[in-house]
Amino acid sequence: AGLRIGYAAAQLTLAAQIDSLRPHYNTSSTAQAAALACLADDEHIGRSLSLNRTGLAALSRGCADLGLAQVPSEANFLLVRTGNADDITAAMQAWGVLVKSGTPFGLPDHIRISVGTAAGIARCLKTLRAVMDDYRSNHSINSRQGAQTW
User: Fold this and answer.
1) How many CB atoms lie within 10 A of CB 65?
2) Which pLDDT belongs to residue 1?
3) Beta-carbon neighbour count of residue 130 at 10 Å?
4) What is the DSSP letter of 114?
5) N or C: which end of the chain has fewer CB within 10 A?
6) pTM
7) Residue 74 above 70 pLDDT?
8) How confident is the model at residue 86, as a pLDDT?
9) DSSP helix/strand/coil, 79
10) Are the C-beta atoms of residues 105 and 86 closer than 8 Å to each other?
């Protein structure tokens, strides 16, 4: 986690919003050096892209199977419409699965799920199923279609 790195290509207004969050997620010089080394390794880039595509597809299919709408993604995460993101994030964390609430980004009914290993994705989806079942039953939302219209 100490070597986290990333970049974004965005419209100026969105870039300004993202930049306002940067101090909380700024990168270290070690992470920047590691990123440059990775960019010089074509095999690593190909393997990383392939693993991310596979993981993203599995995550997307799993969320679709749960009846959850999602924003199309080419990134290393999926933005999923769940209902109250803060409640869902807290419930997932109680199960030991970390996702991010969309509330700080003006999306209080979305969570952000990062692509991980196949085992991590399976655990995340299993936990998300349990959390969403509980959330839906406690909020009188029982249909898959209902989950998409919150």
Assistant:
1) 11
2) 58
3) 13
4) E
5) N
6) 0.75
7) yes
8) 96
9) strand
10) no
